[in-house]
Each structure stands twice: as structure tokens, then as C-alpha cells.
Specification:
6 copies of one chain form a homohexamer.
Chain A lengths: L15 E5 L8 E6 L2 E10 L13 E8 L11 H4 L4 H17 L2 H4 L3 E10 L4 H22 L6 H4 L4 E9 L2 E4 L3 H4 L4 E8 L4 E8 L6 H25 L3
Parallel strand pairs in A: 4-5
Antiparallel strand pairs in A: 1-2, 2-3, 3-5, 6-7, 6-8, 8-9
Helix pairs in contact in A: 2-4, 4-7
């Protein structure tokens, strides 16, 4: 039987922590931790929208993800100094933005843009899922702020879905939830799942890293993901009731 | 009931065409068409591998995807002139490379690199799936070439899996196979699935564009994808028996 | 006596093929072949003109030339990935644009821009000449399209000149027409000539690669070029009478 | 008389906090706060040195400074997305590196490089001084780590100077210490001073923002800076005695 | 006692030369030499101001500094070809601009921008100080030109300060004025000082290159700098009385 | 009859000046003027050659051309700040390099590289021709230097050809030599010709700007170009006999 490095049961999340208003500046600043993974998520509510969106009556949600150079055990080079953003960074930024757009009714948002920044302060696997989970809280905070400024009329009408994200994977033939870097790097299959409160899917990104996977394994992974996402959403909600 | 724009039944592929040796230069050049979508896929067998791979005894498969400016109805700007590669381009390039790595036994490949180039000559939806499907044929051709050059000893030991890819989606509450641009742009859910001959999954990328999707819908989509991929693999194989 | 690798006589063109409407999208898409050299030329008719041109009542013709990475025997790196366009690419793009502007009456074109894209699908010498020759056909097709859209009132008044281009050079002391890569790389002198139907010059770009050339040699080369261009223009015209 | 916005006396520092090992990864990670200004400083000890330094027997200290997009009240654009690092960022990165090189005996360091990363998590004036002050602690921690790894033989021989930095300025004709953003933006003169334990200068960067300054004002500012730096060095030292 | 390489006394400037109207184009073109250091300074008076400045009624002064590749003994690579401007170039450009803004009353300048270009034709130390000293003359010439064009109403009201800059440093325990490259590279302390006619400071940038410096040394260096700047301002003024 | 703006006869050069050793640094520094056009040409003799050239026994000549921002009446933006080199700059850099390679016997040069820098200090038409003409002198000076350093054994064996370049064009139906900007901008045909002492051609670049040109006009232009180049070569030679 497979014993996880941190003694968690296969269907157990790491220690999750969500701290709202971590920065004293800005309308929405959330520090989210999935174990040792720490991401600072901010949401900027902006009345300036992209050109192609003007006059449509609809808003937009975009996102930029980045890692600090020493978020990792080995220092990685800064993309600003390299003069270009890498493929992985773009891919994750786009995933975060797509996921959060699914949480928002863009028509009700009106011609406003929300810019989500996810900066990984420490990386131990699952940074994209932590980013999405934290960003949803920041997004909500930015809407609460916008409501106070009378920029929108109702938070819940804009925020049509609650979403959270978690990674699942198959390690040593065992389906496990919320993989740290150590498990991630040896997983045969690796999947990131974004779900809603009602258990529907927003995004499924599954990759056969070492071995292909079949329908039965897929089903097992999605069941685990659902369990994880439901727990994460409780923690998201609890952060508003501190 | 939903009638498709091109009168196909929901589970029907577009007209698929695979032309090997389309260019007279190069070890592997494949022109693949999924209806009006046309992608030129080449595979370059290179004895030069990335630095981090040297001395590991293992090879690598990488990929670059790009669209010609007038592959589309509206001209898009060249990324070379913009001075940077866009997020979408990176995302697709990475998907193609990951998928094809799942087809290859990197240890048996030895310290060689295969570079897959997918250039979209005409785009009408499904370019990433056409790219993967065509690239598998080009990859095989490059291995046949390498075998002739005695750079590898056996094509089938290197090429451990046959793979193909197809898009599926939900349009007007109907699950459909192989979406052209027109359907793609109005799909509620959009999924790209890469599968093996034995019906296992290599990649699943599902996105709720307009509406989230549930387990039942997912299962229906994956069944369609399996049907499409199996047919595509027959066409791939037929291209070698001309 | 010098025998050419492909047994052509010194004053003979390679097999030339011009296919109009090669892509089903776009107002003008031409696949031109000079032997193994294949270039896809498109022309985009755009009502948006450069800033400095606004209010002048005159239009503009611009061009972008690029090679696919496996257009060549050895793979060349993508300029988009390098983050910058190379000097050779710029030089050829500018030559194509200048040549086609000489074909067009910019005043009669009015405040419209035509963007010529020349993408080399296969390169075996003479790509810039094939590009210009094919681009003229695409340019004409875009004007035919614009006339149908009532964006211009008369094709022939805008298209004041018919032009074609061919390379000539001195190989083994022999003046030859339309050099493939193999001859190009060993030519002492290499010249690209753009001419009009009436035999006037639009561009002459002659370079002493290995040995300088004198007036007599120049005259012989220009005579060859004239013969080649006149034949190319017949083929251009024939492509409209299919 | 001038009353400061936060009721400090003119020669009083903001609340200073230095937290070592803020990240659980890396050899040296320090979170430093000067009031609301928060900078994460890390030091990476690297056996790889720049080319021009190889074979000289001497080491090097370099630095990269950057601000998170929402470190500020208004979101600033990411330099990675802009594709280039701004002048201000370069200027501060170079100041930090020069200052810390003055703290280190590069010969005793041997052919090793220390890379200092200063990422501003929240910006309220004085970010470059906070960076230098925190970076010195991180630098020391990286040397303690290197000693444990037997990469250097003695921490104190490498770390020849203790340094700290503080801003001083003239606001409303009053010389003040450690200016927050609010004072910084209205200062007539603004100066950043880097000093050693023995009260010597490492760097003086004084700028007449609104009004030029004379020798008497300079002397008053430098006296204030000395007081501030001495207090900062006590806090640096205290952080090692927790 | 320390003998300087060029036999100057410690408080002596190199041979200074200021040639106005060096180029026949442009409103202001000044070739300034500090010994072998030669900088071409131009000032462009521009009615187009930066966006953030529009509507404020105030003008702006900006600057770009660059070195020719063979300004130096060893050829340095062109920043244009590297595709990015280096940190040193940015730092100096910013220093020149800040210094000259201190010379100008931006309100009286009105919504106009002056762009200072400083191109180092030959570099032998002190290029930033030569740039500032020459740029002040070019700036004045551009204002004289603007007055003639009735773009401003009075030169002296715009040009509120005369400024010049000089480097000072400690070499072999001796404080010296106006260091050539040879002294600069072995200086323990290196300082660039920008001053006004009335002896006030605009910028002080002092760096402990090899050894830290104390208050007494600072005072001695600033005294030298004042002497040098006053002499430079006489030469600036003389250039207008040729 | 056409009267030139500067009263020259149609076949007359502008006032030409060649100053060797203009910079006191570097092995070869030449300031060349064609009337108001001033270009600083340097040649750097480098034992480091491009990778693809190593082991061939042959050397290389390369070139970089650039204009100062205020070389022109209107300020042009710096390519370093734009982050990319423009097409015109590349085109001219390549022309200069090709032309000078024709002057050099690369085999006799051995595995050395000569880097030609041409920086336009003032631009009034004909900058590429002035660059080539001045660069030949700089190239010779760098070979004289290399001979003194015993890096080559004989200057004249390396420098197999003397070359110079001049522009010719048709203005108001009149063929004219050495066009200033004013004539250049209204020329119907514009041609740059690089020739050798023996009257052979190195490069011919002719462009129909406004009107196409015929063989008779071409011949007349080339005759003028020959006259101009022969005169320029006398001035080149005279510069060595000062």
C-alpha cells in the first residue's frame, strides 16, 4: 500500500489557510496556503476594459500568474529579465482567467474589468489550484469593494458561481488528492479540476505524465476532486465569517 | 433537434485527409485536413538534445505550433513581428509536445530529440487536434527515416503508442464531435481529447465556456471522443498503406 | 561547357505553377511554385491605413515575408521564438513591398492598404522572386474582390503595372536564369530583377558574391532576366483564364 | 512646525520588523517591514559565477529588485509582460548590489556568487532602503548556510561590514528620517544613505526634487541618516538573537 | 604623494571644450569634451508631451544616453542589437534627466517637452558629468530656438538654474577632481556631483567602490566638486560669447 | 533644364572629406562626409569569429549601421529603446557588410573577424554610400594595425579590392550623381552602386521610386556612378598620404 510522504490519507487535503486583506493596500488581497504552497492573490477592479469589449455592455476577467525566483528550491530566472514570459506561465494565467470568468456573470458585471494577480511566494505543488481557490476569494472581495463604491449593484448577481480547484493524480497506482511537488513529480497521471458548489465542472485538465489512464481511473480521480473542492469551498466561505 | 451547419450527424467527423511527404524536403512532412482546417506537420529528428537531457540516456520530443496570418478570415498579426509568442500559441505547443511524448518511449529513443512543427495553413476549428493527429504520422515518418539512417534500431519500440486527438463539445444541448469554428464559438462546453489505440486517455482538456458541465455530459463527450479518435487512427494507418 | 544540375538550358525557367484561391478563406490566396520552391502569397485588402498615410488620400502596400522552419533541408529557428525578425527577412519583406508598390497607383487606390503575406512553404532558391511573382497575382485578386465590394471602382486603374521577378546569376562563367539553391550557393554573381510588361526595370539587386562583374556581364544578365520575366507574366495571365 | 502624518518625531524610524526564514525553502529568506513597506529579501549562494569572474579567485554579489503589481495603491504593469525591465528597477537593483558588495570581502568569498532578490510585497516609500537593510540579513544567513555546507570557512571574514540603509529628506523645510510615500512625494530633497556600523558611508544618493540643497542641509540629513542606520543595525542584530 | 597619470594637480579639470551647433541640423547640438571624453548632446524641443503630463500646464524634460560601440578601447555590443537597454544606460539617462529638470521651471516651460540625447562618441571616464554639462548648453540653445519660434516667451524664466556636473574621487588616499577612466577604475570612492551657480547641490551620487568613506572625506570631495563645477559653468557661459 | 539645389552639375560629387583616426581610441576610426552627411566608421579587428566560421580557415567581415536620433531634421526614436532594430537598418547593415567582404580575401584574412560600425552623425542623403566609402578606409586602417600586431602578414593580400559607393538617380528626367536628401526624396529612380578600382560592379541596388526605368537610363546612371566611384577612390587614397 502507498503511504504518502506527509502521512495524509489519499483523499485528504493539505492544511489549507486563507487570509483576507493580507496587504493593507488594494481592494482585495488574499494569501492562500495549500501546505507549503503560498500564493498571494489580488483582484483589481478596473473601469478600463479591453478595447474589443467596449460597447458590448459586458465586462471581463483576466489574470496574470507569476512565481518569485526563490519560490522554489532552486532559484528560477525572472521572466522580466529574460524579456519574455514562458509557456507554462501563460498557460496557467489563461487557466486561472478562464476559470474565474466561469464564476462571473459578465453581463451583470457591466463594462468593468477584474484583473487577478497570482504571485507564488512559495511553491510546493498545486500552485495553479491554490491560485484559483484564493483568487475566487479575492474576486469576491473586489466585488464587495465595488458594491461599496456603487460600481456594481449586487455582489451575488455578479458572482454567479462559487468555484475552487484542486489537483488529483495517480501515484504508485493510488489515486490521491492535492499533490505536493514531491508526489507531483512522480505521478503517472496528473489532473487539475475546477468545480462549482453544485458539483459541476468548470475545467478538467488531465495529463498522462508517465502512463495513460482509463475511464475507471478518471472517474475515481474526479470523485476525489469533487470531495476536495467541496471542502475548499467551505474554507473559502469560512474566511468571510472570521 | 440541433442540425449541424454542415449536415453532419453529431457523432460524425469532418472529411479527414492525411498526405505524407507533402514537402519534398525533410524527413517527415504531413499535410493534415479536418474539413477546411489544414495543418502542415513536420518532424525533425535531431541528435542535438536539450542541455538538461544530456547524459540521461533519454531523448525528448518538443513542438512549436503557429498560424499563418491569413489562416483565418481576419488577418492576425505575426508573432515574429510582435516580438513575442502569445499565450494561446504556447499553450497549444505545449499540449502537442506532451501528447506526443506519451506516444514515445524516451528511453528507447536514446539521446535524440524530435522537433514537431505544426503550421496552420487554414484554420476552421480543431487546429490543435488536427495538429496532434497529423504530427503522430510525421513523428512515425521521422522514425522510419531514422531507422534507415541507423539512428534508432526499431521504429515500433520507440513508438510505444498510437495517438490521435479530436474536439468534442456541447452545442445547443447536443454533444457533437469535431467542431468547426462556427460551432466552437457557440459551444457551451469545449473539450479536446487525446487518446490511444487501446482507448486510454493521454490528455483531457475540458472547458466550460458558457455553462458548466456535469458527470453525465462528460461521459457522453468522452464516448464521442473515443469514437472519433478510433476513426482517426484508422485514417492515420491507411496513410501508410497507400 | 556548364551543364545545369536539372538539365535546363541556361535561359530556361524551372517549372512554374500558379494556383489561385489555394486557401478557401481570404480575398486572395496564391500558391506559386518555381520548381521545388513553393510560396503561399496572400493579399489582405484593409481599409485601415498607417497613421502617417491618413488624410493624404493615398493608399499603401506593405509586405511580410517569412519561411516555415522546415522549408529548408536543415530546420531553421522560428523568428517568433527568437523574439526578433532577422535582417534577411526584413530585407526581403521590404523588397517585395517596394516592388508591388511600383505596380499600384496609390492615389487611385485611395486610403486603403494592401498587406501582402509571403510564406515560404518550401525553399529551393529564388524565394523572393517567386514571392513577388505570386504576390502580384494575389494583389490583383484582392483588387477584384475589392471591386466586387465596391471598395474601389476599377481594378486596372489601380493596378498600373504588371510585374514579375526572377533571379539571374553567373555560375561557372555562364549566365543562367532562375537559380535553384544549389546554383545560388555557388554563383559568382547573383541578381534579382523585377520588371514590368513593357520591359522596364522596377528593381535591380545585383551582388558580387565571389567575383565582381562588369558591364558586359550585367547586360547579359539583364537580357536573361527580361526573357524570364516576360514568360512569368504570361503564366500569371494564364492563371486568370483557367 | 511640521507635524508628520503618522505623528513620528522628525528623527524617528517607522516600526521596523525583520523576520528571518520567512519562506521554508531556500538558504536565506527575510521579510523586512519599514512601517507598511514590506520587502521579501532572499539570498542565493551559487557556485556558478559570471564568466568574466572565472579564474580571478574572487566572488560576486548581484541583485534583482522588483515590485508586485499590487504592491501599490494603483496596479502597475508587470515588467515581464511588458517584455522589458524599467529604468527605475534597474537603478535600484544596481544600488542594492553595489551596497552589498561593500559589505563583502569578495576575495575571501572565493569564486562563489550571491544573488540577492528583493521583491516588494507592499510599497509605502523607502523600498530600496528596506531592501538593502533586509538583504544584509539574508546575505548573512546565506553565509551561515554556506559555512554549514563547508562552502566557505568563516562567515565574519567574508562579511567584512555590517550595512543598513535609510532615506532622509527635507519636507516643509524640516529634515526628516525614513519617509513614507506620502512624505516622499512632497519632499524638496530626497536622499538614500547606506552606512556601516562604524558610521562610514557606502552610498549617498541625494536628489533635489523640488529645490536644491546646501551643505548645511546635507550635513543635517547625513546626521539623521547615521542615527537611523545605527538603530537599524541593532534591529538586524537582534533578529539573529531571537 | 600621488602623481596623476596626466600630471594634473588633484584639483585641476581636464581640458574642457564646448562646441555649439556641431551638427548643422537640429535646434541644439553641442559637442562637449572633458579631455578624451567626447559627448554629442542635442536637445529637441517638442510640443508633444507625455500623456500623464497633458492638461497639467507643466512641461517635462527627459533624456536618453548611449555609447557608440567603439567609444571604448574594447568594442561593446549595441543595445539595439541586444534588444534591450542595459541597467547602466538607464541609470545614467535618468540622472541626466533629473538633473536638467532641476535647471528648468516646468510650469513656465508650459506643456512642452525637451528631449536630451547624449551620445558618447569617445569614453575616457566622466561621461555622465560631461553629458550633463554639455546638455545644459544644448538645453539653453533649444530654449533660444523656441523663443525665436515664439514657443516660449522668455529663456531665463524657463531656465531657472545653471548647472554643471563633475566627478570627484579618492585615489591613493588623495581626493582628485575629474577622473579619467584610468583613475576611475582604481578609485576607492567615486562621486558624481551636480551643482548650481550658487553652489547648491542638485544631485550627489557617492559610491564606496573599494573602501567606505567618512564625513571628512565627503566634505573634501564636495569642496573639490564645487570648484570644478564653478569652472565648468564659466566655460559654458563662454561658449555663448564666441 | 534641371538646376540642382546646391548648384552642382549633374555629374558632380558633393564636397567629400575623409578624416582618419578621428577617435583617439580604436584601431581604425574614420569620419567621412558627403556634403552634410557625416558618418563615423570604425573597424574592429577581432580574433573571435562566428561559430559557423571556426575551423574553416576563413575570416569574416560584418557590419552594424545606425543613426543617431538627431542625425535627422526630425528626431527619430532610438532602436535600442524600441527594443528592436528596424528593417531599413538591417538592410543597410547587410549591404555594407556584403560590399566590404567583396573587398577582402577571406582566406588570406584567416580566422579573424572585422566588425565595421557605421554611425550616422548627420544624415543628408547617401548615408549607405558614405558608410561604405568610409568603411573601406577604416577597414584598411584595421589591417595596417593588424599587420603591426603581426596578426596578418600582408595588408594588400588581404585587401584584394578597393571599393567605393555612390548614389545616382533620375530627378526631373535628369540623371544626377550623389543625391542629398532633398533630391533623394523626389527622385523617380534611385540607385546605389558599389564599384571597384577597375570599374567592376560589387553591388547594384536600383529602385523605381516613382517611375520605372529602362536600359538606356540604367546605362547612363551606371556611367555616372563609375565616374563618382573613381573620384571617391582617389580621395580615399589621398587620405593615406596626408
Amino acid at each position: 500500500m502507498y503511504i504518502r510522504g506527509d502521512d495524509r490519507s489519499p483523499d485528504q487535503l493539505r492544511h489549507i489557510k486563507i487570509i483576507r486583506h493580507w496587504q493593507s493596500v488594494g481592494e482585495a488581497s488574499v494569501l492562500v496556503s495549500f501546505g507549503k504552497t503560498k500564493v498571494l492573490c489580488t483582484a483589481t477592479f478596473d473601469s478600463e476594459i479591453p478595447k474589443w469589449s467596449k460597447g458590448t455592455g459586458k465586462g471581463w476577467v483576466t489574470s496574470e500568474y507569476e512565481m518569485l525566483p526563490r519560490a522554489t528550491w532552486q532559484r528560477t530566472k525572472r521572466e522580466s529579465r529574460l524579456g519574455k514570459v514562458g509557456g507554462r506561465t501563460y498557460e496557467i494565467s489563461r487557466l486561472i482567467a478562464r476559470s474565474l470568468r466561469a464564476a462571473v456573470n459578465l453581463k451583470v458585471l457591466g463594462e468593468n474589468q477584474i484583473v487577478i494577480d497570482c504571485d507564488v511566494l512559495q511553491a510546493d505543488g498545486g500552485t495553479r489550484c491554490a491560485s484559483i481557490t484564493g483568487a475566487w476569494v479575492a474576486l469576491k472581495d473586489s466585488l464587495i469593494w465595488a458594491k461599496k463604491q456603487s460600481l456594481i449593484s449586487n455582489v451575488d448577481e455578479v458572482l454567479q458561481n462559487q468555484i475552487a480547484a484542486v489537483s488529483v493524480g495517480i501515484v504508485n497506482q493510488t489515486a490521491v488528492l492535492d499533490l505536493p511537488y514531491d508526489e507531483d513529480s512522480k505521478a503517472q497521471t496528473d489532473m487539475n479540476v475546477v468545480m462549482t458548489k453544485s458539483g459541476e465542472f468548470v475545467e478538467i485538465q488531465g495529463t498522462a505524465e508517465g502512463a495513460t489512464f482509463n475511464q475507471a481511473e478518471l472517474n475515481e480521480l474526479l470523485k476525489l476532486a469533487n470531495k476536495g473542492c467541496q471542502e475548499l469551498m467551505k474554507i473559502q466561505n469560512a474566511s468571510f465569517n472570521v
